[in-house]
Amino acid sequence: MPRRCANGPRNEHGRELEAAAAADSAMYPTTNPGCVACCFVMGLLLLLRPNRAPNLGGVLHEGEVCASRHASRRPRPRSTHCGQKRGMRHDAPLLLIMAWLGVCSAKGTICSVKPSVCSGTYSSPSLYLDQRYGGVSGTMPTQLGVLTALTYLDLDGNALSGSLPTQLGALTTLTYLYLDGNELSGSLPTQLGALTLLTEMDLDENELSGSLPTQLGALTAMASLELDENELSGSLPTQLGALTMLTYLELDDNELSGSLPTQLGVLTAMDVLDLARNELGGSLPTQLGALTTLTYLELDENELSGSLPTQLGALTALVSLELEDNELSGSLPTQLGALTLLTEMDLDENELSGSLPTQLGALTAMASLELDTNELSGSLPTQLGALTLLEEASTSCRLGGTNNSNNFSCPAP
């Protein structure tokens, strides 16, 4: 699913968290000693370099010295070094020396970058160390569990590895936990269930495995839970139904199996439900029809079967419906015509049959409609001609002709 949805909750609190991070950085500087040495040596070499004045502007781009990594809030590629050069001919000796030093791009551990964390003297309510601060590697120290005043922990976009410390369960005042974009592995500690004040937890893009702990059901303040792009397996705990404040649930790109719990139907504040690219089976619960605030429903590339519930017609806020590449069968419910805000509906590569409902002509906001590789038949309803926003037939009006299993062709009349 596009990351526009995943990043939504964090952006709502951006100013507050930026201020906390700035205060944290001022009190506990994060400058890597190697980076300081790198810049010092570079400056010394520039001063000693002959004819330095005319070429000084050509050696460094403004704002791209090491210190800017700590002042800037914008992430930089990991291959970016402190010194950027124009004029390769004049600056080659300087670059060779910097490459030989090799300290500029070195990543420290959490304990080396923030010694106070591991000594137990760190007292700020926020700990912010992501790639925009130069990045850290190694494992997460168990001493994090001593920082019981923490409300905000952001270590995303680093190279952290190893398992999540069980001691994180001691951070009972934590409201934001961001560990996405690392190399963390192992299972989710059951102790995370003690973090009952958590409103956002983002652990996506790691290598986490094992099943989802039932203890996650205790996190009743949770508004955003993102565990996508890991290697999680097993079934979805029914206890997730207790997270009634949840607006974002993203578990796509894992190895989850079993059926969809009917308890998902009580999560009536849900805005985004993304369980795509797993191994989920069984039928779609009729209870999903209660999620009337849902805008994105993405269950594509699973093993779902059975018919489409007529209750899907109650999801009148829906903008995107992605159910392709499953084993869904039966006819298209006429109730789908009530989803007038839909801009994309993808039901291709299923086993759907019967004719197209004339009610689809009411979906005038539709820009992408994909129904190919099914067993649909009958004539194309003339009402489809009202879908004037459909893009080029070859890309966004894939109803499927002779070569795509259906018995009619696109474009719509």
Rg, nearest Å: 26 Å
Helical region count? 10
Say what oligomer this is.
Answer: single chain
Percentage of β-strand residues:
15-25%
* Structural class by SSE content: alpha/beta
Span between termini: 31 Å
The biggest beta sheet reads: 12 strands, parallel
Side-by-side strand order of the widest sheet: 1-3-5-7-9-11-13-15-17-19-21-23
By DSSP, the count of extended strands is 24
Name the overall outline: elongated
Which terms summarize this structure?
single chain, 413 residues, alpha/beta, twelve-stranded parallel sheet, 10 helices, 24 strands, disordered N terminus
List the helices and strands and how they pair.
Elements (H helix, E strand, L loop, with lengths): L2 H4 L1 H5 L1 H14 L5 H16 L3 H8 L6 H6 L16 H14 L6 E2 H4 L1 H5 L6 E3 L7 E4 L12 E3 L4 E4 L13 E3 L4 E4 L13 E3 L4 E4 L13 E3 L4 E4 L13 E3 L4 E5 L12 E3 L4 E4 L13 E3 L4 E4 L13 E3 L4 E4 L13 E3 L4 E4 L13 E3 L4 E2 L16 H4 E2 L15
Parallel strand pairs: 1-3, 2-4, 3-5, 4-6, 5-7, 6-8, 7-9, 8-10, 9-11, 10-12, 11-13, 12-14, 13-15, 14-16, 15-17, 16-18, 17-19, 18-20, 19-21, 20-22, 21-23, 22-24
